[in-house]
Amino acid sequence: MNILIVNPNTTASMTAAIEATAASAAAPGTVITAVQPDSGPASIEGYYDEAFAVPGLIDEIRNHPNADAVIIACFDDTGLDAARCITAAPVLGIGEAAFHLASLVCNKFGVVTTLSRSIAALQHNLHKYGLAARCAGVRASEVPVLELENPESNARADISAEIARAIHDDRADAIVLGCAGMTDLAKSLQDEHRVPVVDGVVSAVKLAESLIALGLKTSKTTAYAWPRQKTYTGAMKGYAPGAE
């Protein structure tokens, strides 16, 4: 199995951490390739960053046409629907993957993400995926994404404190970590709080392996049909369907 993981931001150190976590969770024989685009935002924190991350995401998927599955390693599931239109391979967002797996091990899960600006996007996705009723609440630790890589920051302590509030105040009985940059914290936070703590990167890897093994691919009948050929102009000329 060949699984492509695309970190839609341009921070290579975060991509390396994502790749390490994914490789440790992958089954024997699964090959993990993790990449990030050459252009775009250094981190994705809100709708504006998301818009400018999608072209680079599309580039990376096009550059790896032989992947058996694609994982988008941004918890907002940046560009997920567009990505499903350009490949028949299964495409998983780490947010959607984590939400689904968390729903299997608890009554209601809480989500702890980075900044408050991300709450609305995650709530929107929960409704879109039909899982809003399973979520006890979405909380922000107010930790900027890139601070997750700073060993001198209080990032882990701030995330842990918000998890404690989600468990106590929201009565969440499992926690979903709402950022790919939190991937290396899941085990220690689970041990600390004694509830399931679900990481989206690991969740997406295991679901991708299952979809590949079952021979399931992205449906091309309606919403995720191949894009219709047409002209794109200006800076977007190279993204026209058929231009690749």
Radius of gyration from the alpha-carbon trace, in angstroms:
17 Å
Morphology call = globular
H/E element order:
EHEHEHEHEHEHEHEH
Q: Report strand order across the widest sheet.
A: 2-1-3-4
Nutshell version of this structure?
The protein is of the alpha/beta class and 244 residues long. It has helices spanning 12-25, 47-63, 80-85, 94-103, 119-128, 155-169, 186-193, 200-214; strands at 2-6, 31-35, 69-72, 91-93, 109-113, 135-140, 174-178, 197-199. The chain contains 8 helices and 8 strands.
How are the SSEs ordered, and which strands pair?
Blueprint: E1 2-6, H1 12-25, E2 31-35, H2 47-63, E3 69-72, H3 80-85, E4 91-93, H4 94-103, E5 109-113, H5 119-128, E6 135-140, H6 155-169, E7 174-178, H7 186-193, E8 197-199, H8 200-214
Parallel strand pairs: 1-2, 1-3, 3-4, 5-6, 5-7, 7-8
Written overview of the protein:
With 244 residues, this protein is of the alpha/beta class. It has 8 helices and 8 strands. The chain has helices spanning 12-25, 47-63, 80-85, 94-103, 119-128, 155-169, 186-193, 200-214; strands at 2-6, 31-35, 69-72, 91-93, 109-113, 135-140, 174-178, 197-199. The strands form 2 sheets. A 4-stranded parallel sheet has the order 2-1-3-4, with helices on both faces. It has a 4-stranded parallel sheet with strand order 6-5-7-8, with helices on both faces. Helix 1 (12-25) packs across helix 8 and helix 4 crosses helix 8 (200-214). The mean pLDDT is 95.
